[in-house]
């Protein structure tokens, strides 16, 4: 569904930060992009969605596939109401009203935004703005979702609904790439992990492979394996 070949990328042409990030995401797969602060997760995501200026490599999205992106910082239009945001997203994805309206209403209910349709999201709390973006993205039923830190700022009920939605979209055959620091959720949700450190890939694979790579017993958590890999420098 998505092939990522980043030879190098960075904020300045002469000083690339990312080096040799290569991975593929298949339909029906949830892949976790994991790394410490500053490891390069957001830079990788920005390189994929095309908002980084200096990228050397090749990003290939399967023909005619729709991509939805949920950024870490919710950015919304100042003068559009919640409902107008939903209508705008539906229009740009050319979705018929009979399809998008019931989906939108269902998502608003799940994320406790029913009744706020005619309010301006710029006046919402950060978590509510994050939920608005989640509703906008999942309403489109995209083929691939790229989600930067989906759990930060969400209350426990919204987190639960988001986890269910991610599973639901995976079941539908969507591919999902998500960066996160919430490793217990990542461990449950993700089929595979890409671990980054200082702009480089230090591991790719599933939890079993990571346990083997770090010489840990079966049952060791993603957090403990990740810690081992970074702190003990297992290679
Ligand atoms: N707008 C920017 N301009 C210049 N350098 C940046 C910019 N944003 C990030 N960087 C640098 O790029 C490197 C990777 O940052 P990135 O935001 O990709 O990390 P991250 O893994 O997403 O971290 P976090 O978990 O803290 O969000 C860091 O050294 C950071 O200082």
Short account of what is shown:
This protein is an alpha/beta fold.
Molecular structure report:
The chain has 235 residues and is an alpha/beta fold. The chain has a domain at 1-65 and 144-151 and 178-235: Rossmann fold (3-Layer(aba) Sandwich). Helices cover 38% and strands 24% of the residues. The protein contains 8 helices and 9 strands. Helix 7 runs parallel beside helix 8. The longest helix is centred in the C-terminal third of the chain and has 17 residues, at 156-172. The chain is globular. The chain starts with a strand and ends with a helix. The model has no long low-confidence stretch (mean pLDDT 93). Residues 11, 17, 35, 37-43 line the site of adenosine-5'-triphosphate (ATP). Residues 11, 17, 35, 37-43 line the site of adenosine-5'-triphosphate.
Notable characteristics:
transport, six-stranded mixed beta sheet, 8 helices, ATP binding, binds adenosine-5'-triphosphate, ABC-type transporter ATP-binding protein EcsA, three-stranded antiparallel beta sheet, 235 residues, alpha/beta, Rossmann fold, globular, 9 strands, ABC_transporter-like_ATP-bd
List the helices and strands and how they pair.
Blueprint: E1 2-10, E2 18-25, E3 30-35, H1 41-49, E4 54-61, E5 67-70, H2 82-92, H3 97-110, H4 126-139, E6 144-148, H5 156-172, E7 175-179, H6 183-189, E8 192-197, E9 200-205, H7 207-213, H8 222-231
Parallel strand pairs: 3-7, 3-8, 5-6, 6-7
Antiparallel strand pairs: 1-2, 1-4, 8-9
Helix pairs in contact: 2-4, 3-4, 7-8
Bound molecules: adenosine-5'-triphosphate.
Protein name: ABC-type transporter ATP-binding protein EcsA
Organism: Oceanobacillus oncorhynchi
Keywords: ATP-binding, Nucleotide-binding, Transport
């Amino acid at each position: 569904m998505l092939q990522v070949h980043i030879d190098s990328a960075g904020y300045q042409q002469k000083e690339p930060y990312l080096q040799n990030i290569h991975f593929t995401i298949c339909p029906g797969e949830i892949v976790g992009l994991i790394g410490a602060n500053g490891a390069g997760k957001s830079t990788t995501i920005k390189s994929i969605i095309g908002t980084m200026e200096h990228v050397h490599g090749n990003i290939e999205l399967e023909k005619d596939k729709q991509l939805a992106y949920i950024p870490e910082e919710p950015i919304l239009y100042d003068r559009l109401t919640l409902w107008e945001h939903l209508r705008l997203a539906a229009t740009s994805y050319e979705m018929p009203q009979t399809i998008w309206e019931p989906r939108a209403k269902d998502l608003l209910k799940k994320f406790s935004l029913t009744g706020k349709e005619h309010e301006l999201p710029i006046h919402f709390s950060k978590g509510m703005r994050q939920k608005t973006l989640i509703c906008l993205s999942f309403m489109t039923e995209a083929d691939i979702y790229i989600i930067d830190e989906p759990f930060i700022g969400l209350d426990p009920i919204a987190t639960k609904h988001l986890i269910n939605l991610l599973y639901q979209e995976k079941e539908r055959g969507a591919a999902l790439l998500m960066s996160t620091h919430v490793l217990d959720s990542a461990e449950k949700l993700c089929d595979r992990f890409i671990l980054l450190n200082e702009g480089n890939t230090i591991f790719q694979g599933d939890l079993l492979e990571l346990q083997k790579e770090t010489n840990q017993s079966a049952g060791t958590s993603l957090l403990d394996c990740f810690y081992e890999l970074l702190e003990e420098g297992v290679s």
